[in-house]
Amino acid sequence: MAGRRAADRAPARPRPFWRPALDSAAMLALLVSGLVGFAPAFGGSGFVLAAGGGLVLGSVIAAVGARFRLNLFILTALTLVAYLLFGSLLAVPSAAIAGVVPTLESLRQLVLGIVFSWKDVLTLQTPVGGFPGTLVVPLLLSLVASVLTLSLALRFRRGAAWALMPAAAYFIAAIVFGTRDAALPVLQGAVFIGVALSWWAVRRTELAADRRNRPGYAAGSGSAPDAAGADPSQVSAARSLRTTRLAGGAGLVVVALVIGAVAGGAAGEPVTRDALRDQIEPPLDIHAYASPLVSFRKYVRDDKENVLFTVQGLPDNARVRLATLDAYDGIVYNVAADGSAASGDFRRVSEEVPSSANASTVPTTPATLNVTVGDLTGPWVPDVGSVDAVTFSPDTGRAKELANSLHYNAATGVSLSTLGLTTGDSYSMNVSIPVIPSDDALKTDSIAPVAMPKVSGVADAVSSLGSNYAGDASDPLTQIRNLATSLSQNGFFSHGLEGESPSRAGHGEERLSSMLSAPQMVGDDEQYAVMMALMARELGYPARVVMGFYPAKYEGASAAQQITGDDLHAWVEVDFQKAGWVPFDPTPPKDQVPTAEAPKPRSDPKAQVLQPPPPPQEPADLPPDVRTDNADQNQQPQQDGFPVFVYYAAGGGLLLLLVLLTPLLVVGALKLRRRKRRRNAEQAADRLSGGWDEIVDRAGDLGTPVPVGVTRRETASTLAEAYPTVGVVGVAERADNGIFGPGEPTPADVEGFWAEVEAIVKGMGSSRSGWRRLRARTSLASFRARRAERRAARRRGHQS
Q1: Of 64, 108, 300, 722, which has the fewest CB atoms closer than 10 Å, so is most exposed?
Q2: Looking at the predicted structure, is the pLDDT value of residue 392 above 90?
Q3: Is 101 helix (H, G, I), strand (E, B) or coil?
Q4: CA torsion angle for 692, 693, 699, 703 (degrees, to 10)?
Q5: Same domain assignment for residues 380 and 490
């Protein structure tokens, strides 16, 4: 019996070189057919370098792992090292030195890309190959898929079909991360199916040949006799049969592919497929919406008397917000959309706005507004304060569509509908209106340390005049009030409409410079609000421009207040620590129009209140630095804590450590579960047998050859030569005595036996190097040996 088991477990003949080469070529063909699927989503040729490089690296790692029988832990470590070493060249060359040598920035992008690049690929506008970090996706997928596919194909002889699973997963992933437009769907499918079927047919033939060539294989089992006594005519017939089978299989594959191609052509244009990106709502691209401030003059000119919307429930002195703008580039004041501030972060909301979105300590007054849209059309949704809930009226027939298109920015209190408002739309809105404190309270408040987006293109005249207007006031509120009051008193109002003084629209650098250099400073809300906001920013205060509405006369909260184009305004808000964003109005009154003759310049345009000589005092607390292009970035106070890149590096290191330790933890958990199952077996004899199996498995994981098909004592004699100090022979004898001897072993006997087993297992490991012990902890050799033993047992059962 032992001889028969040894024959069943006899190693197969070494495979000729061309067979692993054929396996590698077939697996690469499968993977390349999947690689083509990335083309529609990524575009260009960058993805070919990333994905193709990943396939080459993965193939080399898999070949080395198969050649030296590296375990899962080593393969994972090699894969990570290759990813970090070559990822800069393949996926983020713009961050590498000369496009090749890794840098801290390129490594940071590679580490973060493991987590975040998937979202970018699905949400960015295609083709996504030109965006930073997106090529990490094809690189990672190709690298991991090639390592798994070729490792399974090269290492397994009977279970090689499992290699088709990661190859198919890679093929599907290219479709999932693609677009509705397929690259070469018929050719991709034909190559993948044809190569997979052909390769598996060859592997099946090789397995059959291995069975026939196994020593002791009987002719009566359904195959040719032993090679030693083979009949030449039977051998020739067997070879002819194999050739016929291969030819028939190849013919079936060709026929199936031809029929599929013809049927596909006859069916006409294929139905548009759905990709994963079609099911994911991309983040709102605020660049797609123009700043409403550029249309300020259009509203006041074309809609001066037209009802833009009607609002009921508007409290006295409350202002209706249309848009909040905080980024300036010398041409237009807009919403920051570069991630430098929260003003561009619009999130989809349902009817109930999450309370966390509006978390604030500023006192508020609740109100309910009912808004009916008139001539106001476009994406910007009028609201007041911070929004708590929005309900669109079903009478318009668009309630569901409007609700699904609603986005809200909690940092600025701005609502936006990607569908756009039209005449007749109506909605109800629960809001919380901030209470504006008195100037006495604001004087004791400090400026909030909020980061603002950079501004550029600020005219020199705006900076210098802002310093003069702010005066020598010691507190922020007085300086800000001086800016608003000086602009309001020194300037003149005009929309530039028919019958009014000339006043050009726009708020770019040239418009503001010409406005300040003219004999009279003439403009409207658009120019004055932008000018004051830029002055405040130059002084270091967090200021933004708000465009919205408030009527000259409030009708009361119970009345339906009609809002026209004449009620459109722009003002400035500055963020205070306790009070939040406080509004300031720098625009002159509408009746303050230019005079026919230019007035003489004021003798002292600085402060508006005569101030006594200041007594000696401590230096005033300066406002927190606000990041601008015009401010010296080197003079910003050092932030507490570590630099940001330190956190990135630490996070990336922890992530890599977790990935490296995961295989170790998984394999260790599996071995611990196996040991527990053996030690707690129902029968005492099974617990003794399990203890001996634990010793044998430990030896196999340590790389010691363990004979198969022999008795425990024979195995113990072999192991005693490799581990002479651990007493393996005595444990084998006790196991045999307990299993085959008279009577049932007592629990105490079993526990004593397992104590010896644990001591032997520990001693076996101590006799080897630390590196050998680490490899043994992650080795799957014992699992493979037990699996092969079960298969041999099943074969013997079938033959009997």
Answers
A1: 64
A2: yes
A3: strand
A4: 160
A5: no
Using an 8 Å Cβ cutoff, are 99 and 154 in contact?
Answer: no
Residue 123 half-sphere exposure, CB side, CA atoms within 13 Å?
11
Answer yes or no: do 93 and 187 share one domain: yes
Q: For residue 253, give Cα distances in angstroms to 29, 247, 618, 663.
A: 16, 10, 90, 39
Res 659: pLDDT: 65
What pLDDT shows up at residue 628? 41
Is there a single domain that holds both residue 401 and residue 450? Answer: no
Q: Is residue 472 part of a domain?
A: yes
Burial 223-236 (b: 16+ CB within 10 A, else e): bbbeeeeeeeeeee
Residue of higher predicted confidence among 641 and 650? 650
Residues 187 and 249 in one domain: yes
Range of the domain at 55: 2-217+232-266
Distance between CA atoms of residues 111 and 762, nearest Å: 38
Half-sphere exposure of 460 (CA within 13 A, CB side): 0
Closest CA to 551 of 307, 269, 758, 296: 307
Q: How many separate domains does the chain show?
A: 4
- The mean per-residue pLDDT over the stretch 274-297 comes to 80
Q: Is the pLDDT of residue 69 over 90?
A: no
Q: Is residue 272 part of a domain?
A: no
Both 60 and 205 in one domain: the answer is yes
> How many angstroms separate the CA atoms of 533 and 549, rounded?
18
Whether the predicted pLDDT of 230 surpasses 60: no
The reply to whether 513 and 652 lie within a common domain is no
Predicted pLDDT at 795? 75
pLDDT tens digits, residue range 85-103? 999 999 999 899 998 999 9
Helix H, strand E, coil C: the string for 279-325 is HCCCCCCHHHCCCHHHHHHHHHHHCCCCEEEEEECCCCCCCEEEEEE
- Residue ranges in 702-746 assigned as alpha helix (H): 712-722, 728-740
- Cα separation of 364 and 375, whole Å? 30
Q: Which residues of 609-633 are buried (b: 16+ CB within 10 A; e: fewer)?
A: eeeeeeeeeeeeeebbebbbeebee
Asked if pLDDT for residue 369 goes beyond 50, the answer is yes
Residue indicated by tokens 């634990």:
694
β-pairing, 522-523 with 492-493? Answer: parallel
Alpha-carbon dihedral 215, 221, 227, 231, rounded to 10 degrees: 160
